[in-house]
Amino acid sequence: MFFCRILNSNLVTIVAEERSRTMWKAALLIGFFLAEGWSKECVPRSFGHNKIVCVCNSTYCDTTPDADPKVPPNGRFYWYVSTKDGERLSLKEKEFGDAHSNLFTLTLTVDSTVRYQKILGFGGAFTDSAGMHITSLSNATQDQLMRAYFDTKEGSGYMLGRVPIGSSDFSTRVYTYDDTQDDDTLEHFSLAQEDYQYKLPLMRKAHELNPEVKFFSAAWSPPRWMKTNDEINGFGFLDRKYYDVYSNYLVKFLDEYRKNGVNIWGISTGNEPINAFIPFDKLNSLGWTPPTVSEWVGEHFGPILEASDHNDTIIMGLDDQRIFLPWFAKNAYPRHNMSKYIAGTAVHYYADALAPAGLLDLTHEAFPDKFILMTEACTGTVPALRHVDLGSWDRGETYILSILEYLNHWSVGWVDWNLALDKSGGPNWINNFVDSPIIVNSTSDEFYKQPMYYALKHVSRFVVRGSVRVSMTDDVMVKSAAFVTPSNETVIVLYNKWSIPRNVVIKDTKKGPIHLELPAQSMNTIIYGQ
Fold first, then answer.
1. Does the chain have fewer CB atoms within 10 Å around its N or its C terminus?
2. Band of residue 6 on the pLDDT scale cut at 50, 70, 90
3. Active site residue: 154, 194, 272, 405, which one?
């Protein structure tokens, strides 16, 4: 018995040591594979039927499979897929070839000789709320989150970042940069603690991860004392006697951000000016009409910005719902020489159900030298619905369909709203809670990538800056867009709205046919060489 006990003890020790060696070997192999460019898969967590998020923490976060070689060999293509039932950017390599079509096969045609707009990029907003939640995480988890968005290899490759000038509704308090009454010389102008704590550090980190990122800005409201109603919201306009003072106020913002290591590429005429005309709306706002904004830009802000050290900072008009196009642009840009200073038109997506995408086409036709950029979008805005709906595939579908629609109607990019929120969808000083592609859980030092995140990544990771949209057909249930990148790759993005798989043949007029069976309710990105 004693001998048996010793033998069993020794066997246990040997087994334990061998298991330990095996675990270390596995760990070393995993480390080797990751060092060699192998991707990390999603760690899923379910919040209900087909409501799946990918969980990231300080030591682990899923990444995009990195195809090798970057461009598939001639006659082959890469296919990235995300599905409602849990696939997230899984990678397959396939061959061009004869398609076995049938009565139910959908045929789509790509013609890269027909070209449209050049792509500027995709991104999100550095709001106070987003910064508050991101910085509530440990440094290592913060780094994971920022890489998830701005790293060009493992992350989404974001090229754009929007930042409010002063407070927005996604702040915990109302503030501007000069709340001293009648400070015409702006002697008391200063950035807020939120800029130093929540905005600037994260913007510098984004630029470190991707030096090509461009930042643009918008004011929700100037200081109260510059407005006709002396309020941060409501039916208020910029008092004409402050047209120059407000222009200098915005230039001072550009000065201070540059001093703190952040250059601002673009600035809009102000966030959602039409909100000032909506009774009982509590959102910080500054009302503009086409005649007043054209006078301010054409005779005051435009010349003052041009004479400043920031004369390479571009100006965008509108920054509101596309339902106001092309009317707003047609009645503003030709007046007071405004067109000289306006580089593009910024639009938001919240009223798109009331405004056909053809309005973007009409705006492009009227002003072909002015780009169109979708600058704000989010889901969870309907009060009767859940503001944050963790893992909602429907909201991911909303995102990718909107992205494809805007790109197919002349938008040079698509910019999300808050980079991150918490499970309440805030904080927001007027309780205007919404959803976000990334939700932070600081209690457990982790964050959740929602389907909305992958909807954007299916485009932003592959349709890089300088890509050109080319001709591609689609139909009501399979939406698509095609691009040629600066390195001469063709990138096709498709969404299958069907709740069943769908056979699709893509005919490239240069390369031949691609036969796919698109999974039910799936996001798809196809890449091949020209």
1. N
2. very low
3. 272
Tokens encoding 418: 């808050």
- Residue by residue, DSSP assigns 29-67 as HHHHHHHTTPPPPP-EEESSTT-EEEEE-SS--------
Specify the 3-state DSSP secondary structure of 403: helix
Q: Please say if 405 is a catalytic residue.
A: no
- Using 50, 70 and 90 to split pLDDT, how confident is the model at 272? very high
Collapsing DSSP states into helix, strand and coil, what is residue 483? Answer: strand
Average per-residue pLDDT in the chain? 92
**Which residues, 6+ apart, have CB-to-CB distance to 298 below 8 Å?**
335, 336, 337, 338, 340, 341
Name the strand (E) or helix (H) holding 504.
strand 502-508
Q: 3-state DSSP: the chain helix, strand, coil percent, rounded to 5?
A: 30, 25, 40
Query: Of 221, 348, 198, 354, which Cα lies nearest the Cα of 282?
Result: 221
Alpha-carbon distance 119 to 117, whole Å?
6
pLDDT digits (tens, 9 = 90+) for 439-488: 999 999 999 999 999 999 999 999 999 999 999 999 999 999 999 999 99
Q: How many CA atoms lie within 13 A of 276 on its CB side?
A: 23
Per residue in 310-358, pLDDT (tens digit) is 999 999 999 999 999 999 999 999 999 999 999 999 999 999 999 999 9
Amino acid making up residue 223:
P
pLDDT at 30 over 50: no
Distance CA 278, CA 44 (A): 42
Cβ proximity of 347 and 386 under 8 Å: no
Contact 34, 115 (CB under 8 A): no
Of 295, 376, 397, 489, catalytic? 376
Element (H, E) at 19: helix 2-35
Specify the pairing of strand 121-125 against strand 411-418.
parallel
Distance spanning both ends of the chain, measured CA to CA: 76
Would residue 187 show up in a list of annotated catalytic residues for this protein?
A: no
3-state DSSP assignment of residue 73: coil
Burial class (CB in 10 A: 0-12, 13-18, 19+), 10: exposed
At residue 518, the 3 state secondary structure works out as strand
CA distance 128 to 151: 22
Sign, CA dihedral 381-382-388-394, equals: negative
CA 454/CA 245 separation, integer angstroms: 43
DSSP state of 237: B
The number of angstroms, rounded, from the C-alpha of 28 to the middle of its chain's C-alpha atoms is 36
Instruction: Name the residue with tokens 């043949």.
Output: 505
Phi–psi pair at 251, nearest 5 degrees: -65, -35
Per the CB < 8 A criterion, the answer to whether 170 and 134 are in contact is no
Under 8 Å between Cβ of 513 and 94: no
Cβ contact 417:378 at 8 Å = yes
Residue 343 structure tokens = 């580089």
